[in-house]
């Protein structure tokens, strides 16, 4: 049996040896060698290389297909290239002027282009084998890069799509995922993607199980903005005078001082059950109130006192609520916790914007129209823990749990 050797490697059959030879031929073409040079490098004739690329027709009339796919990359090239891209003539001028010794800026002035355009063109398309800028090779490589469809970055970079999927399963938004990628891989630019890239990836791949992940990741269900009605003419609802949000200190508004909270209820089916939500304004830290016995004023004020009583004093500065009847006993809360309680204007949910946003996120866990009375305190604590473990853009992609722990340690 003969020995089938190519480039010092022995192959078990002639077919395997020929396949390796053809693969190396394509590599030489992609590196910038012409047809004659590539054929000579692998030890075949120029005619054989042509047969590999184009196929041939036998005398019997039987057509043989090409045995290498070197031309395949050109099939997706655009038929018309936009003028903003360098043309073949411009690339020939770049090669000529480089040989003449002109500078980057000189070539840019000659072509009416930015120096950075010329610099990137030369750096990107210089042949690594010869070290020279070859205009025809550069034009072909540029056209190949413009071809569509392209392999998406999330599929081309190992581990990137898995990271995105893990983020979606943790109920992170695409913006949060993008921020954490930069935080976890600060020195790896391949792992940095913008929010739009993540949205495009999950929309394109939204099939089967991933479709459900997308529906959970893209949380907002509202399609129209609600009217902001003026309710200044409404009378106070409670026997104890309310302190309105207009009297709240400016330090609360700009979030300069921690310990100021916003609160509300999210309601279950037919308003028969509810869960209380408390959000700290500066850290976005969330506390959930378990209300299994009802959401009247008596039960709500006791749940607020029990949960917030566990906090350090410097994190109990104020609480802002709407004018719902569940906070009719606000004086008890203020006295028990030594904490100011403020009320929003009627029909003005944007005055508790942090809390309203958080309630919208919580609807992933507690859908509208469901009974909220069946959830245990342990489950509410687990949901709050997951929410507090999400990176937040407004915190520089730090987590609320990290931010509030820093405040506690600093005190």
Notes on the protein architecture:
The protein is elongated and about 100 Å long. Strand 5 (260-267) and strand 6 form a beta hairpin. 43% of the residues lie in helices and 9% in strands. The chain contains 18 helices and nine strands. The protein has 411 residues and is of the alpha/beta class. The protein has a five-stranded mixed β-sheet, sandwiched between helices. Strands 1-2 form a two-stranded antiparallel sheet. It has helices at residues 14-30, 35-42, 46-54, 88-99, 104-111, 115-125, 135-146, 153-156, 160-169, 174-184, 195-204, 209-217, 250-253, 297-308, 330-337, 353-362, 377-388, 400-410; strands at residues 4-6, 9-11, 56-57, 63-64, 260-267, 274-280, 286-289, 318-321, 340-343.
Short synopsis of the structure:
A hairpin with a 5-residue loop joins strand 6 (274-280) and strand 7 (286-289).
Could you list some keywords that capture this structure?
alpha/beta, 18 helices, elongated, 43% helix, 9 strands
Backbone CA Rg: 33 Å
Q: How many H/I helices?
A: 18
**Sequence of strands across the biggest β-sheet:** 7-6-5-8-9
The oligomeric status of these chains comes to: single chain
How do the helices and strands follow one another from N- to C-terminus?
Answer: EEHHHEEHHHHHHHHHHEEEHEHEHHH
Task: Name the average pLDDT.
Answer: 82
β-sheet strand percentage: 5-15%
Largest sheet, in brief, is: 5 strands, mixed
Shape: elongated
Secondary-structure-based class equals: alpha/beta
């Amino acid at each position: 049996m003969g020995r089938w050797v190519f480039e010092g490697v022995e192959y078990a059959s002639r077919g395997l040896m020929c396949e390796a030879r053809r693969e190396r031929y394509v590599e030489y073409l992609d590196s910038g060698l012409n047809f004659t040079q590539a054929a000579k490098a692998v030890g075949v004739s120029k005619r054989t290389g042509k047969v590999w690329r184009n196929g041939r027709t036998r005398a019997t009339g039987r057509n043989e297909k090409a045995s290498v796919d070197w031309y395949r990359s050109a099939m997706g090239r655009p038929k018309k290239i936009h003028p903003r891209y360098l043309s073949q003539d411009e690339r020939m001028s770049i090669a000529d002027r480089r040989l003449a010794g002109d500078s980057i800026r000189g070539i840019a002035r000659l072509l009416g282009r930015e120096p950075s355009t010329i610099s990137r063109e030369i750096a990107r398309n210089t042949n690594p084998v010869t070290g020279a800028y070859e205009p025809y090779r550069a034009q072909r490589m540029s056209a190949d890069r413009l071809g569509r469809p392209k392999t998406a970055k999330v599929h081309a970079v190992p581990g990137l799509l898995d990271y995105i999927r893990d983020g979606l399963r943790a109920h992170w938004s695409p913006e949060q995922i993008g921020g954490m990628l930069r935080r976890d891989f600060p020195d790896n630019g391949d792992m940095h993607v913008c929010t739009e890239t993540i949205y495009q990836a999950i929309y394109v791949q939204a099939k089967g199980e991933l479709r459900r992940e997308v529906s959970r990741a893209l949380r907002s269900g509202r399609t129209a903005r609600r009217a902001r009605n003026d309710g200044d003419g409404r009378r106070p609802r409670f026997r104890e005078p309310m302190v309105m949000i207009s009297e709240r200190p400016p330090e609360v508004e700009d979030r300069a001082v921690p310990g100021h909270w916003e609160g509300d209820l999210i309601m279950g089916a037919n308003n028969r059950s509810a869960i209380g939500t408390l959000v700290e304004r500066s850290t976005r830290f969330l506390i959930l109130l378990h209300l299994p016995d009802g959401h009247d004023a008596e039960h709500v004020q006791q749940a607020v006192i029990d949960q917030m009583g566990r906090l350090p004093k410097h994190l109990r500065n104020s609480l802002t609520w709407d004018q719902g009847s569940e906070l009719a006993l606000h004086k008890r809360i203020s006295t028990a916790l030594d904490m100011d309680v403020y009320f929003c204007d009627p029909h003005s949910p944007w005055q508790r914007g942090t809390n309203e946003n958080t309630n919208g996120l919580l609807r992933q866990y507690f859908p509208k129209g469901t009974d909220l009375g069946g959830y245990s305190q342990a489950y509410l604590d687990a949901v709050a823990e997951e929410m507090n473990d999400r990176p937040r853009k407004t915190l520089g992609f730090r987590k609320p749990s990290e931010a509030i722990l820093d405040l506690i340690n600093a005190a």
